[in-house]
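ok so dumb question maybe but i'm new to this and my supervisor (M.) told me to 'just get the structure for EamA family transporter' and walked off. so i did the thing. is this what she meant?? sequence i used:
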Amino acid sequence: MRSVLLVLAAAVCFGTTGTAQALGPDADPVSVGAVRILVGGGALAAVALALHVAGRRRGATGTSVAPTSGGRTGRWPAGVAMVVGAAGVLAYQPAFFAGTASNGVAVGTVVALGSAPVLTGVLDWALRRRFPGGSWVVATALATAGVAALASASGTGPSAVDPIGIAASVAAGASYAVYTLAGKSLLDRGWTSSASMGAMFGVAAALSLPVLLATDTGWLATGPGLAMALWLGLVTTTVAYLFFGAGLKRLTPATVSTLTLAEPLTATLLGVVLLQERLPTTAVIGLAVLASGIVLLTVTSSRRMPRRAAPRTDAVPAAPVALDA
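this is what came out, is it supposed to look like this??
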């Protein structure tokens, strides 16, 4: 349950992204995405480095622990997983923005967020030979249907859907699946959650600097712009992915990707509370269906978590072994 709650906490942090952008100044979405990765990824790398140094001072490695059970670690070398994960982090932002620009925020969001759990589950099944389970299928279907209802209730996009925009949104969902599975691969190898997230996002932060310099960064010179950049970087990225990595350590990638659909749930509720948005009946139904899928997955995941066997108090002590026999 602790792992499930950590992932849900990460989703709540993710869900504040839209509200932060709405309350902040107008800015180029590509510039905002680059700043988010640069600040958040750089901070994640700094946290991982600090924990590594502290671990070495205590006599530990600071970057690795006992490998997690149930995963296949031999398929992706650690360096490949780190680079592939960083590429997924970088690819997500432009693909997501391209999808929403072509078909509107509602359609682009539902395709990206709705495809991510399905693609993560399929890729996890293909690479790790582990079926996510029937409860995951039902919970994912419910949660995705809820997201679709939310999108249809607030949809203002064009009636004709652009296939290229749909492909971009699906690419965003695939990018999410890629860096989730890459992070899980590092965790299965014994990396700590902070080290795995810090490595992927640190590399992505370094690669995002040229992207940022190629955009208009004038909005960063304003107070609201700086506040938005810090919130998006430190809260929706650094803090969120520390929670995300810690939860991913004990859960399957498919389960984690479905739990993060609490992001649109959070975003919708914040829109009502802070931005005074009004929800039609369809949106309320969508929220209820989405929440039911998350609750179902939360309950079934917590029941499947392995428990440590309690030590036996009635066991007969073993006879001493003579070492000099």
